[in-house]
Amino acid sequence: MTSPRGKGIDRQYLEDMQNRYLKALIAHDPARIPLVKTLKHTENTIELPVGEGLWATASDDATYRLYVCDPQGGQVGFYGLMKENGFPIIIASRLKIAEGLITEIENIVVRSGKRPIPVENLVKPRQVFLEALAPSERVSREEMIRISDLYFDALEKDDGDIVPWGDDCNRIENGTQTTNNPNIKLPGATSFNPIALGCREQINSKSFVYITEIRPRRYTVIDEERGLTFGTFMFHHAGNIKSIEVPGAGEVEMIPAAQRPFTVVVSELFKIKNGKIEAIEANMMSLPYRARSGWDD
Question: CB within 8 A of 11, min separation 6: which ones?
Fold first, then answer.
C-alpha cells in the first residue's frame, strides 16, 4: 500500500491524514480531504452522509491526541478532546485509507450528559501508549488480538484470572480512571466500591455480572510498533440483574443505571507488552438495547 507520493504508508503519513481530517471537520469542509466516492461514514453507529453530524458542529481542533497507527492495514485510530459548538467532547475516530483515499470513517462521539467531560484529565496521553516496544517485547498481530479478547471473555465470565495482566494495569473510561481509584464511588454504592479495585480484582468481584454479552468484537487497528490493539465493541445489558453476590462483601444492590436494558458502544484500546495487558483506555456511549454497530454486515 502506498501513499500518493509513492512512499509506503508509515506512522507519520497516517497521523498526518488524521490531522487533515480533523482540520476538515472544524472547517465543515469535506472537500479538504481525499474521500473515495463509496465512503462509509458512521457516527455513534449510525451511517450518515458526509457533511452531517460532527462535520456540521465541530468547532475546535483536538488538544488531547492519542494516535494508533497500522501501516499494514492502512488504518489509523485516534482519541481526542475537542469541541463541538464550543462545548467539550471526546472523539474516538478511525480512518481507513487505500490508494491515498479515505474509504471508511468511524466515529464515536462522547458528549456531555449527566456527567461533564473531565477535561482536566485529558491533557496528554499516558506515556505507556506512546512508547515503542523492543522487538523482544512484541507478540504477533494475532496474539495481540487473542490477548485483548481474553479481557472481554473475562467480563462475560466474571473471571479476571484468565487475563494476563501487567502489574500496573489501569483502565480509563471517558477520561476517568475506573480502576484503583477509591476517590470515585458509584451512585448508591455501599461500603463496597469496585472502582477502588485493580483490573483483575474488579472482574473477580462479579461487579460486571450485569453485562449480558459483548458482541460483535471488531479489532480494526493493530499498532505493532507500540503494542496497541484498537477496536469497537458492543456491550449488551439485559437489565435483569438487581443485585450481585460479591466475594467477601455479600449481597450488593446493582447500581440503578444497570437495572434497565441498554447497549453501550465502546471504543477500546489495549497496550500489550511481553504478552500482558499493561493499560486500557476506552471511550463509550449508551444506546438502545441490542443496537447494532453500524458495521455488522
Answer: 67, 69, 71, 225
